[in-house]
Amino acid sequence: ARIAVLPGDGIGPEVTAAAVSVLRHVAAHGDHDFEFSEHAIGGCAIDAHGDPLPAETLIVCKQADAVLLGAVGGPQWSDPKAKLRPEQGLLRLRAELGVFANLRPVRVHARLAELSPLKTERLSGVDLMFVRELTGGAYFGAKTRTADTATDETRYTTAEIERVLRRAFQLARTRGRRVTSVDKANVLETSRLWRETAQRVAHEFPDVALEHQLVDSMAMLLLTRPAAYDVIVTENLFGDILTDEAAALAGSLGLLPSASLGEGTRGLYEPIHGSAPDIAGRGVANPLGAILSAALLLRHSLGLAGEAAAVEQAVDRVIDAGVFTRDLGGSAGTREATAAVLAALS
Amino acid sequence: ARIAVLPGDGIGPEVTAAAVSVLRHVAAHGDHDFEFSEHAIGGCAIDAHGDPLPAETLIVCKQADAVLLGAVGGPQWSDPKAKLRPEQGLLRLRAELGVFANLRPVRVHARLAELSPLKTERLSGVDLMFVRELTGGAYFGAKTRTADTATDETRYTTAEIERVLRRAFQLARTRGRRVTSVDKANVLETSRLWRETAQRVAHEFPDVALEHQLVDSMAMLLLTRPAAYDVIVTENLFGDILTDEAAALAGSLGLLPSASLGEGTRGLYEPIHGSAPDIAGRGVANPLGAILSAALLLRHSLGLAGEAAAVEQAVDRVIDAGVFTRDLGGSAGTREATAAVLAALS
Ligand SMILES: CC(C)[C@H](C(=O)O)[C@@H](O)C(=O)O
Ligand SMILES: CC(C)[C@H](C(=O)O)[C@@H](O)C(=O)O
Predict the structure, then answer these.
(1) Is the shortest distance between the CB of A187 and ligand 2 below 6 Å?
(2) Least confident stretch, A297-311, B70-84, B96-110, B136-150
(3) Are residues A82 and A186 in the same domain?
(4) How distant is the Cα of B59 from the closest Cα of chain A, in angstroms?
(5) Residue B112 falls within a domain, yes or no?
């Protein structure tokens, strides 16, 4: 299998290196053949190639079986008036790969409950799977700008809504068989199309329960009743906001993975944390989000569900054992945490 | 002073009646002359007049010094395909009154900390003032719909952004002198205009500190560091989501007021809770959100800051005394809670 690795900016190189070492371990022990190649994206690609998504990177990603990405961005590239921005590379890559469904699981490890801002008793049983539409909406709509006016268009077609909803319903079948579809149907036309489409798609999945929530209510319910939800599916911008809110429940962003999938098995895998420029290059970043993203890569792109589960269990054991990086209140470095995962895997 | 009262749907009539009784008490004891008149809005206005904002209601509101609203909406009017929806009445009223700045204070009463989903230690010192842009953005932009495509346009002009930001900076001067402006400038054109405009307006207020946050980060920071913020200003849709998220911190929506202000002193005041059809007409709704909205009315539209503070202190004393409606874990009815506020005022 060909795996394109895009380390990106900030702590991206450190955490992708950790994830690659775990994948190499899986390959060696299971007699799989993984080929890795590294390519530029984001701010460092702007600096080196004048393009946040160089043509070479895109070609390799399209030919790969899976793409593992670190993070993009940093203060030196974040002038809002700049023509080239690191995020453009990531957004173009998502669109070019056609990965319309962004899966973000959120679980709260019992040993980390005290790090969560939520009261411990609210956390028990929290096991969420967000499915965020990733290649449409305001992110990719027409934009205009004059001296004193700006516009962003949010556009959705029935086909775009159907395919991401089907993915959510399919996932629900492997879990609690409940889908919560989030929109703002009392105000937005795109949300009314979203809701109607969800109602129609639900008929294809009579064994899965569908409920609708307004995005403002959902922002509240994630705090008041986080254990009450299973699969939560929503459009791109709402998903961006709600998944970060839900991520806060886990106690640290450093732990959370994501998988972005399209029609085939090729996927884009990235931890949900950012490039964390303040700690970049110091060997203290939490590698677990990237390692758990590699587990999702094994499961969704390479069909290695057993190996994926083994990596996830190894991470659980490392947390149980209290090997914590600084974001979790410990003093382990990136290398130490990674070594602990490798040891737990053996 | 002329006060237009729009009870609306669900528990709206119960909670506005409570707020009016507090205002009558203030008038009687302070020798002020308040004239109240009641008008239809929302679902009940659709039923009675075929219009969620009847012409008569709008005319009276435009002539009033202040408008006190209960809540609109309910399941019988919430078919997404319906032509007439209760929310349209509220949205049109906001636009027609030109109330572009929606103020939503969020404090967490110490006695109610255990109701909050957040760990108690994170709550100390939380004292937020949201300023949500209320008459622009995706709520009021062009919308299109065909059989298989829908669009919503988000549009902002510099003038719209400036006026709401100035209001936020002015409020910050009466509080902690810090403004956090929330946008999604790494993706949206309207957010880049927002951020540039915020930077420019900040020069008019050298005594107030400005910081920018991305909306996804803010959704997380409200949970991880809620006490770190003072005034938070943002566009309409982001404000809708973030204020509901922040409201969850207070333990119950039933307590939270809002004020919507334009260029003059006329304002629209409403509790942030909805119409709560499940408990409507049963005399158990929490009247404190509506009563605190009446306090904001006294302060912002009638120039009665002392009276406003007296009402707020009376509500604090009622909470201190443990007179709780069901949403706060008590058994007091709407009437009992209102009587307790009136007694505390005397
Ligand atoms: C970096 C940014 C463009 C991106 C997004 O908004 O999608 C990030 O916040 C995310 O959620 O992956
Ligand atoms: C009822 C609805 C249209 C309204 C809004 O979205 O503005 C409500 O959620 C609010 O926040 O006041």
Answers:
(1) yes
(2) B70-84
(3) no
(4) 24
(5) no
**Which residue has its alpha carbon closest to ligand 2 atom 12?**
B272
- Provide the token pair at B277: 């059809």
Q: Residue A241 in 3-state DSSP?
A: helix
pLDDT tens-digit readout, B192-224: 999 999 999 999 999 999 999 999 999 999 999
Q: What is the dihedral of CA A160, A165, A168, A170, to 10 degrees?
A: -100
Query: Domain of A282: which CATH number?
Result: 3.40.718.10
Q: To test ligand 1's pocket by mutation, which of A90, A245, A272 has the most ligand atoms within 8 angstroms of CB? A: A90
User: What is the rounded distance in angstroms from the CA atom of residue A287 to the CA atom of residue A333?
Assistant: 9
Residue B79 has a pLDDT of 81
**Containing structural domain, residue A175:** 117-249
Q: Is A244 a catalytic residue?
A: yes
CB B240 near ligand 2, within 6 Å: yes
Task: Give helix then strand counts, H and E, for chain A.
Answer: 12, 12
Q: Considering the domain boundaries, does residue B70 fall inside one? A: yes
Alpha helix stretches (DSSP H) within B98-235? 120-123, 158-173, 189-202, 215-224
Active site residue A240: yes
Determine contact: B106 vs chain A, CB below 8 A. Answer: no
Question: For residue A149, what pLDDT is reported?
Answer: 98
Average pLDDT, chain A: 97
pLDDT at residue B81, as a whole number: 77
Binding-site entries of B: 74-87, 94, 104, 132, 216, 240, 244, 274-286
CA–CA min distance B148, chain A (Å)? 5
Same structural domain for residues B124 and B243?
yes
Domains in chain A: how many in total? 2
Phi, psi angle pair for A106, to nearest 5° = -130, 110
How does residue A79 score in pLDDT terms, banded at 50, 70 and 90? confident
- Residue that is last in its domain, among B249, B265, B297: B249
Ligand 2 atom nearest B240 alpha carbon: 11
Residues A47 and A166 in one domain: no
In this structure, are B149 and B267 located in the same domain?
A: no
Domain end call among A198, A232, A249: A249
Q: Which amino acids of B are annotated as binding site for Mg(2+), given as ranges? A: 216, 240, 244
Query: What residues pair up with A36 in beta bridges, in sequence order?
Result: A3
CA-closest candidate to residue B291, choices B266, B310, B305, B264 = B310
- The candidate with the shortest Cα–Cα distance to A54, out of A77, A13, A88, A30, is A88
Residue A199 parent element (H or E): helix A189-202
Q: How far apart are CA A52 and CA A50, in angstroms?
A: 7
Please, are residues B157 and B137 in contact by the beta-carbon 8 Å criterion?
no
* CB-based contact A259:A293 (threshold 8 Å): yes
pLDDT at B101: 98
Looking at the structure, tell me whether residues B261 and B334 fall in a common domain.
yes
d(CA A183, CA A240): 13
B346 within a domain of the structure (yes/no) = yes
Nearest to B24 by CA among B83, B68, B58, B55: B68
Q: Which residues contact B170 (CB under 8 A, 6 or more apart)?
A: none
Retrieve residue B92's tokens.
């049109």
Q: What residue's CA is closest to ligand 2, atom 6?
A: B240
To test the contact with chain A by mutation, choose from B106, B124, B216 the residue with the greatest count of A C-beta atoms within 10 A, namely B216
- DSSP code of B245? H
Q: Of A11-25, A73-87, A326-340, B126-140, which range is least confident?
A: A73-87
